[in-house]
Design brief:
It contains 5 helices and 8 strands; from the N terminus they run ββαββαβαββαβα. The protein is 40% helix and 25% strand. The longest helix has 16 residues. It folds into 2 domains: 53 residues, no CATH class; 83 residues, Alpha-Beta Plaits (2-Layer Sandwich).
Amino acid sequence: MSIYRSGKPLDWVNLKKSSGSSKSKNTDSKNLAELRRQNFIEIKNQKTVTAVKLTEAGVIECLKMDLVLTDVLPDGLFCVVIFDIPENKRKLRELLRFFLKENCFIPFQKSVWISQFNMVKILEKIFAIWKINQWIKVYIVYEDAEQALLNFNE
């Protein structure tokens, strides 16, 4: 099965039917069915092609996989997540803390978490999809303020 891709992550993509063995076709069908069951994709079967698109859950899952592949920041730099989620959204705060912990962040304070990995762009996308970016800021910061000033003045 090959994907003809263009456009945005939530666009429909036409899948060309597999020309391989029946075992290969069966595996493709099972894989698509499992992705649909997990609500990662939507499928439209048409006469000659099958159209597939990622759901928001599918996009988030892809972004989470990207988090695993992020680069370690140079010595002295950290990715910092600072949040101030309203008290009436306590469960959301706890979920965010769990998410950060699962993705290599450690708490500096209850609402300030740090990591050695450069996750800024990916986290900003995830937080925008979750519609919580108004309460969260993500930065790359220097551990040593003096070193930061030296680098800034160069």
